[in-house]
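Researcher: I'd like a candidate sequence for this fold, 289 residues long. If you have to choose between options at a position, lean toward the conservative one.
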């Protein structure tokens, strides 16, 4: 596939050019493209573990769970926000969106399907530190420009994207601001206070409220808050989807075996899902001075 946004060599910082099925820079650093089209730009010395990112079982559990449509309301909410943004702005060449921590591709598939009905042009790219997640994403054949890479060191040059999206994934604000265009927008999705309260009640004695993942943004001069949208629903999770829900969350690693066995015996689990979608404008350079 041809790359719409040029990659930056993670070794030397020079542009990477696609030649046949491999990316090359002028200093002859090479990165092979997989058969399904993604490229691995995560250097071995930058890995903090043998298998960075979500474990394979988490990736597959999330894929199975999301495909059942439990979080469709979030994808639809994101679609409405993106439509409003793109309709207000004129981009003859279309819009470039980067999903930071894109996972196995459920949300970008939903967005590409929903937005195809509008006639608006949205070109999609995604990075994730998990090779398994990117591999599963690439198997969807969505035409998304995909790379295994870290959000700490995005493999792109300055001012490449109109929109950055993060769904329950960490964002490093200096990197986000660097790759966003001057009028770019950051969209952060995190848990609302009651998100998955029913699951927590099934596995914990004490249930806590989520605090969200926006504290750093609130204090950063790089971005200015624009809007907050909350999506709240109650869902009924059935059968084996209950254990998949647990496995795809950080709760999985802290849940005692007896509680996992209890979840396996449940026929259904009722729980609220509560998402906060926060949008931020990139601060203009003259305002930072």
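Model: Candidate sequence:
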């Amino acid at each position: 596939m041809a790359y719409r946004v040029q990659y930056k060599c993670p070794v030397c910082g020079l542009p990477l050019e696609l030649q046949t099925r491999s990316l090359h820079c002028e200093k002859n650093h090479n990165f092979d493209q997989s058969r399904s089209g993604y490229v691995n730009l995560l250097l071995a010395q930058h890995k903090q573990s043998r298998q960075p990112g979500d474990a394979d079982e988490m990736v597959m559990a999330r894929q199975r769970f999301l495909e059942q449509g439990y979080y469709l309301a979030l994808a639809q909410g994101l679609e409405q926000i993106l439509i409003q943004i793109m309709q207000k702005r004129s981009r003859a060449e279309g819009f470039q969106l980067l999903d930071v921590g894109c996972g196995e591709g459920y949300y970008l598939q939903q967005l590409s399907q929903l937005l195809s009905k509008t006639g608006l042009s949205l070109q999609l790219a995604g990075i994730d530190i998990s090779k398994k997640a990117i591999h599963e994403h690439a198997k969807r054949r969505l035409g998304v420009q995909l790379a295994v890479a870290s959000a700490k060191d995005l493999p792109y040059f300055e001012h490449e994207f109109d929109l950055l999206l993060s769904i329950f994934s960490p964002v490093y604000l200096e990197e986000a601001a660097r790759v966003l265009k001057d009028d770019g927008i950051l969209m952060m999705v995190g848990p609302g206070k009651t998100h998955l309260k029913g699951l927590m009640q099934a596995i914990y004695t004490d249930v806590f409220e989520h605090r969200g993942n926006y504290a750093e943004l609130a204090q950063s001069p790089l971005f200015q808050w624009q809007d907050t949208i909350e999506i709240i629903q109650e869902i009924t999770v059935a059968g084996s989807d209950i254990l998949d829900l647990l496995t795809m969350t950080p709760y999985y690693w802290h849940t005692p075996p007896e509680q996992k066995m209890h979840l396996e015996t449940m026929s259904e689990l009722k729980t609220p899902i509560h998402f906060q979608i926060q949008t931020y404008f990139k601060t203009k350079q003259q305002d930072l001075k």
